[in-house]
Predict the 3D structure of the following.
Amino acid sequence: MNRFCLLIFWLFVLFTPALSSAEAVRIETSFDPPNITLANTSTYKIVVHGSQQGPAGGLPQIDGLKFSNPPQTFRSASFINGVPSVRFELSFTVTPQREGTFVVPTLQLTIEGKSYQAPAAKLSVVPPTQADKIRQAERRNQENNLKQAAFLEFQCPRPFLFKGETVEATVSLFLWDKLPVTRIDQVPLKIGDGISMTELGQPNEERGVRRFNKSYSVYSWKFGLTGALPGKHDLSFGSSIRVRVRNNRNSRLSNPFFNDPFFGFGREESLEIKSQLQQLEIRPLPSLLRPMGFQGAIGKLSINSSLDTNRVSVGDPIKLTLTISGSGNFAAMPAPKLSIGENFKVGPPAFSFKGNEATMQKGSQTFEFVVTPLQAGLIDIPPVDFSFFDPSEEKYFSISSQSHSIRVDPGEIWTDPKQNNLSTQNSVPSVSRQDLFQTESEPGQWEENLSTPKPLKSSIFWIAQFGCTIVAASILIFRIRRRNPKLELRKQKEKLLDGKIREALKHKDTSGFHQALRRKIRLRVGIVCDQTNTSALSSSEIINLLRQKQFPENVVTDILNLLKVCDDLEYAQNPNNVTTLELVFKNASATLKNIK
């Protein structure tokens, strides 16, 4: 019997096109229900009888009604009183915006290449009843509770920044204590262009914070925010968390997150969180009264200088240390220019930062110069000038370091060895051949002088020395020209990050491993693409830089996957998954070898 019914069904499906072509096409329209209150919705239906092909056309824009898009579709085939019939149905959910009577006019539709008219339909919307008002209030209350269960809050000290200025900002994740959160899937990510930020580190956790008459656990990240492009930019942050919910499949408005499942059973769902949109203005630096020596330093800064010694000999190096302290854009701050005259030879500086490395906004930047005096005497090192822009006063300032006096001794006096040899030869009496004798047991030629030969008198010796000096000087000059202090410092940072990655891998530190790996990827891309502020690069900026440098698409894809893995697994709370860490480490090492 079951096989016979199945055969009848398939025969019916196969002959449906023939049946549809035999039946005349007819169109019906209606609202279901045709009368609703302002708090409810209705369904607008277009039913095509005699065809299973969807009609082509468009709905008119009705002021006061909102139609869902795309609509739901339904095809059916049946026998009515022994007569075969097929139909196609479109259903639009209609939400009223105001009270009144609304008419959808006659529609011109195309079905199977032919034009048909769909009749008009009318919908009546009346004021909401008391029960509707109660349901609306409950729905709004539930929506507010859902929004207040978990939310992000972004705080910036000012509504505007100057281009290149760095400020300390905060983004906080509020989690309601009654919300059964299992883990944080994604740390807050910046949404918006024109503004760069430093990498988010470990959050600061605070419990028992009261908001909206509720108790929250708050996770706060402090970071440095730097204006990149002038103009007005929309900025927000997005994150996601995992929550445990009951196994029922009710709608969101039933608040499944607000009750912990019985004995912890249930399923996990991802909850997306976004902060409110804020608009920040990035203003260009004023050109009026800008000092000639201004190089881009922005903040409230002071300068200090020191020497490691105040007495040396000619040619001995001195370490001159310049320290710039305060609050400012230390991540992009260039070294001050030294103009200390022709009495000194100055090498490239080495620099280091001490302070809040999460924001790179407060602390001190140290620049160490190697200064070599070229002549003897009491010589002064003049003050070093430094200019910066103070955003709080919106003015440029120029400050100077201290001056230093050093005593340079002449050192040892070099004596020409030729003169010493001549004086020695003049003082040694000549040996007469008559004073010496030769026996038969000592055959050989007669030597007038038994002293050892002196290489300083040999021209071959001096030619060899001169050639070696030229080669050594050429190598030294070549290395000095090729030397890039910023590049060497970045390579040193990359070696430190390699050590941190291996240390995290050894101790099974998942968060530290992915954080160090993300910083290494940014540093490597910054080195290759000649970027100064590598710590402020976002994932999208890294991918754009690689594509601008015309790296192969497979390399760009591998880097994008590594960044996504770092973001996904840093807060995965699975410290025992060492196999995953080792696999990520091998893939990262192979991928980073292609970025040179």
Remarks:
- The chain has four domains: 2-126, 141-283, 299-409, 485-592.
- The chain has ten helices and 30 strands.
